[in-house]
Amino acid sequence: MGTSVYKSINRHWFAIKRQFLIVGVMKSVMGELTDTTNRAEGFALMPVVWGFGATIGYVNSISL
Hints:
The protein has one domain. It contains 4 helices and no strands. The chain has helices at residues 2-11, 13-33, 39-44, 46-63. The protein starts with a helix and ends with a helix.
C-alpha cells in the first residue's frame, strides 16, 4: 500500500506542486483585491469560486 501511494505521488508531483502554487497565488491576489473591511467575505468566497471553476472545467472537458 505504501509503495503504491509513493509511486502515485512521485508520478504526479508536478500537479500537486502546481496546485499549491495556484492556491498561494489566488490567496495573495485576493488579499490585494480586498481591504480590511471586506477581506473575510472575499476569502469566504474562495471555495465557492473554486468549486464553480472545477465544475465548469469538467463540463468543458467533456464537451471537447
